Structures are given as structure tokens and as C-alpha cells.
Amino acid sequence: MSGTRHLTRLHAGAATLAIGLLALFAGAAAFAGPGAAAAAAATPAGGPAWATIADPFPGVTGERQIATFGTAGVVVVGSGGTIAVSTNGGATWTRRALPGGAQKAVRAVAFSDALHGWAVGAAGQIDVTTNGGVTWKATPEIGTFTAVAAATSAPLVCVLGASLLTATNVAAPVWTPEAATLTLPTAPVSIVAGPDGVDHLDGFAAASGARGSLITRNADGSWTAQTGLDEPVTLALAPAPVWGTGTPQLFAVGASDVQGSGDAGASFQALPALPAATPTLVSAAYLDGPDPQLLVGGKSGLLARYDLARGAWSVDRAPLTGTVASVAAGPGGVAYALSSSGHIERTLSYGATPLSLKISATTVSGSAAAQFSASSTIRAQGDLALDERPAGGSWRALHTWPWSVDSSVAGQVDHAPPSTSQYRLRFVYAGHSAVTSAAYTVRVRPIITVPSTSLVERKGVAYRLRGHVSPVERGRKVTIWTNRGGGWHKVASGAVFALAGGTSFVSRQFGTPLRESYELQVRLPASGAYLAANSALIHVTVR
Known about the structure:
By secondary structure, the chain is mainly beta. Among the domains are: 355-444, Immunoglobulin-like; 446-542, Immunoglobulins (Immunoglobulin-like). The chain contains no helices and 50 strands. Strands 42, 44, 45, 46, 48, 49 and 50 form a 7-stranded mixed beta sheet that branches. Strands 34, 35, 37, 38 and 39 form a 5-stranded antiparallel beta sheet that branches. Strand 12 and strand 13 (157-161) form a beta hairpin.
């Protein structure tokens, strides 16, 4: 198993989204009544933190590896001499055969940028791509390798196996044996590479092996043996480490604990224990961006995140099974997890819930408006879309906002739902959509208006009720109710009236044979598109 991870660095600012979407609400509630103030409500956070993406090698299990490149590139090691490459975040894949064919057992792959990548394995070749994995070219056989790492902001590539080789020119790599004066780690486990942490012009690397052995690379290309580890560890490194700040930049993930170093591996301190009994830890990656975190994978589908700012762990609930053999970080909060059972998960938000929705009201009366806001932990390049699905209709995009790793923007939409509808937020990443919130129902209650709520009529004079309903679907009918004679009931005859033109109504003539007082009310029953509605009470006095 290789602990090598490709990490892409993007400097990003805060990215909190505050969206006021007028006239959008979630859930149903009783009508507040005239003059009543609607209480602010917060909906549960919606949308999965991790989503399953297609496995390019279905049915292939075992200790495979996943890595990232560019803005949305992903590569997965398959069986034999094959890998699979995606340029759209894993939405679609293209299988590539590496030089050497099925006889070559590929073990690891890493990229330094969107174009340059390296694949290593047991056949002794180092396969190189300069076009984002479209084609690969083999070097002469050099040795047997199990891990490869490439710095993303320094010209350094390292391969680890029975020997340790480096190259400092990614465009035309010349492989140089290093660490000749040290005893290289037996049973090599993991290697990471990045800038030196000082001026970021030279390369830093660290390699681990059996019995807790660890060596680190100096700016002059020499290596130093480090101490303090007592078991084989998988390594993770910040893409642009800054040493001496008190914040760990290099991580050693053992079977049962995690240690961090802020001084280039000279010393390690144990991180807090994970919050629950933890299966054996296996893989690790550093998630860069505005909220840097360490992502670790283990047996039994374990995914856990260590928030460097808060100094606390969170255990993610992705539907992975088996051992999380490999995790990889993309730009910002994008990350991937690959299990030994052939299952791949992706997050756009560090593994945290991507959107949290807050609503200021619960129903719409007529075309009234209210505010709908959201905060986002998504740190990816794409578009945030608001979708609408009217009653009986299909989903359609209502509005779209551009989004980036360092976005700190706000958007607002004035919108009256055409009927009871559903709304959701969706993120478009690399041209493909990921639903990032639950679907919330916006229920519309029509408003029934009448010219007057107080009628004074002379005995023996007939009158009609007139009014207007908005909004309402065509073909609907209203009913007229009265409390004349005690208790509410439909009027004796002609109680139901069609809406002329879909919105207006005129009742039959009502006689006034007696001097009396009573009340009338116009009512619209509920339908799939609208809530039930009542007019104001109409007070009738016959003199």
C-alpha cells in the first residue's frame, strides 16, 4: 500500500455564502392569520457531505490508489498495467494502458500540476505523462517502486522503493539516486514532497518505512534520519509548509494514532485521540484551502477529519465499505476516498455538510415575499444553482451564481413561486451537477379578496357576492359558507361557484326576507398546487 498523495495548493479566502432568496420557504405550518408575525425558522442542513462517484474499475478490489491533478482531474490505479483518468471530478472516466502492459503492476501515481504526472510499480519503469494522463511514456527500467510524490509548488519529484530517486525538472526529469549515506527504510511505506518551507524554491520530502523509520530531505539534496516514531506510518504534508509556527505541517499517521510535526520532521507531537474507538488507520491527505484539515481513512469505511484551526476531530459518515485504502485532496475542500471494496466517494466541502439553510417564514400568501439564506463550506470552482420544481412539473434552473475557491459573494433573488413548489441548491462542478441541499417545499396559500367585509342591506333587496382569488389554477371553484341559523355550513343552494377567467367569482343572488345579522365566508379547498384559503369574514346586516 502506498501512502503517496497528490495535493493541489490553491490560496483561498473566506467563502461564506449568504443568499437572500425572496419568497422561498421550507415546510408547512398553520396560517398565522392577519397581522401575525411569522417566526424565523432554521431548516436542517441538507445534502450529503460525501457523494458516490463511478468506479472506473468495477469489481476490482484490493489496495488501489487515487490521486488528483489540476482543477478537477482524478486518476485511479487499476489492475495490471492500467489506470483511469477523469478531467471532470470523476463524472466520466477514460482507461489508459501504461507502457509494459498487463505485466506491470502499477502501485502509485502522482501529479505536480494539470499536465505532468508519474506512475510507478513493480516492473521497474517510471511512466511519465506531460499531457494530463492522455499518453504515457516509459523510462528505462531503474528499480522496483511502491510510492511516488510530486511537489505542486517546487520542482521536485520523488519515487520510493528499494532505492530512492529524485528529479528536479518536471518537464524533462533526470532521476538521481539520493540518501546513499542512509539506510533507506526497509519495506517502504510512504513518501511526500513539497517546497522547503523557507523560500519555497527548493524541495522538501519525507519518506517512511518499517519499524517507524523516517528520513527527511534537506534543501541541498541530502537526507536526515529522524526519530520518535515507533510503527510504520503513512505521511501527509501541507502543500506549502511553513515551519516553526506551532501548527503541524507534516503528519505521520500510524495504525492507531496521528502525530504532527511543525519542524520538518525533527520532532512529532501526538494529535488528540479520535473521538471514538477507531479501526486501524491506513491512509491520509492534507486538505488545503481556507479551512485546512487532515483527512484520514481506516478500516471499516472510516473517514475522519482533523480541523487544524479548532484542534478537533470529526468522523464523517460516507457510505464506504472495507478499508479506505487511499484518500486524495483536490483544490480547496475537494477530496476523494477510495475503498478496497471498489467504492469511491467525493466531497466538495472538506467532508462537512456543504450547505446550511435558514428560512424567515413558512408559507407564502398570494405573492408575498420572505428571505431564504444559506451558508456554504464548498471550496471549489463552479456554479451554485437554485432549482425549482412546480407541482406536477420537473426540476428547472431558476438562478445561477458563479463560485470559486476564494469566493465571498452574496446573491439575492426576488421570486414568487407560481404554485406550491420544491426548491434545492445544486453545485455544478467541472460541468457536472452535485445536489448540495435537501429539497424544500414552498407552499402557496391564495388570497381571496372581496370588495367589502361589511354589507348593510334593506329587507327584500337581493345582493350578490363578488371577489377575486390570486393566485389560483384554472378550473377551480370556491364555496360560500354562512353561520346563519347557528354553526358554519354551506349556504342552502348555489354554494359552489366557478372562477371566471380562473380568478374572479360572482355568486347567485341572495334574498333578504328577514331583518337579521349573519356572516358569510368564501372558501377555496386545498389542491396539490395550493393550500386551502379563506376570505375575511363578511358581516351582513339586513334592516
